[in-house]
Design goal:
Blueprint: H1 2-29
Length: 30
Amino acid sequence: MGSVIKKRRKKMSKQKHRKLLKRTRWQRKH
């Protein structure tokens, strides 16, 4: 069960990173 939580954590961090990238790209345009 511990490994499943680790995998889920990795997915969450990836999504957070993607959101950050989108935000920085938006700031650069405007």
